[in-house]
Amino acid sequence: MVDIVQIVFMIPISLRERLCIEPGTTLEYEEFESGGRKRVRINLIQKKRLPFQDIYRVSANGQITIPKHVLAYLGIQNKDELDIELYGNDLTLIRGYLFQFKEIIESKRKGFFTNSSLDLLSVVFHQEPDQENERTLFVDNATFLELRHLYFKIKSKFDPNNPNW
Asked: What is the CA radius of gyration of the chain?
């Protein structure tokens, strides 16, 4: 893991408006797991905090500082991997779905994204073991469902008609 001290991250304006997050809003981070995924809830603080507690504020541009312990918890190695989403009514930080998807493919086909002669890979649920260097990747049911779930999350995020972005 790359040793990142902290990063500055921009909350999309659509989420700031939807949740009424103003510059100067105080927040704290709460780590939790849901559905086998690590997440960090961003709690907006209304009350005064004790002086020794870590507090963070939203900048005038809608940026927040993400501390090292949050990045380590999520397994973030570079800023591009960090993503934000609404989870229920909570604003949460996650490791981006595209990176999760890529990690699963890489675990099944080592080097696929770096030195593969294949430019297309079909993923199929199948009980047989995978055949390396073929255009079809055989995976078990759980992996197939996970990849399918991630695919739809990625698709919805980059869909220009998605009302959440």
From this structure: 19
CA angle 45, 70, 52 (to 5 degrees): 50
Pair 82, 96: CB distance under 8 Å: yes
pLDDT digits (tens, 9 = 90+) for 125-143: 888 877 777 888 899 999 9
Asked if 83 contacts 93 with a C-beta cutoff of 8 angstroms, the reply is: yes
| DSSP assignment of 87-138 | ETTEEEEEE-HHHHHHHHHHHHSTTHHHH-S-S--EEEE-SSPP-TTSSEEE
Cα(25)–Cα(69) distance, integer angstroms: 21
CB 82 within 8 A of CB 7: yes
φ and ψ at residue 19, rounded to 5 degrees: -100, 5
| Total residue length of the chain | 165
What is the pTM for the complete model shown? 0.78
- Average pLDDT value for residue range 22-43: 91
